[in-house]
Amino acid sequence: ALVASGIERFLQLRHGAGVLAVLPPTAWWMLHQALLPLVYAILLIGLVVRGRLVLRKSLEHLHTP
Fold first, then answer.
1. What are the domain boundaries of the chain?
2. What is the predicted pLDDT for the residue at 16?
3. Integer distance in angstroms from the first to the last C-alpha of the chain?
4. How far is 22 from 16, CA to CA, in rounded Å?
């Protein structure tokens, strides 16, 4: 049963990849336009979090003699 479900899932994935390959360039462009802000938001949040951590560590170093 496990093997059958695995094969079924694999076929579904291949079918999905086929559908993606058939997409016209405009659809790819729209997908790209939709995902780009999301990617930028994730990167920005990551930078802010890392920046705050670095800032906190440097402030701690300043406070401790």
1. 24-65
2. 66
3. 65
4. 10
50 residue type, one letter: R
Q: Kindly state the tokens that stand for 51.
A: 């920046």
Secondary structure in 3-state letters for the chain: CHHHHHHHHHHHHHHHHHHHHHCCHHHHHHHHHHHHHHHHHHHHHHHHHHHHHHHHHHHHHHHCC
Per-residue pLDDT of the chain (65 residues; tens, 9 = 90+): 777 787 787 777 776 666 666 667 787 788 888 888 888 999 999 999 999 999 998 888 887 76
Residues recorded for the chain = 65
Positive/negative CA dihedral, 47, 48, 52, 53: negative
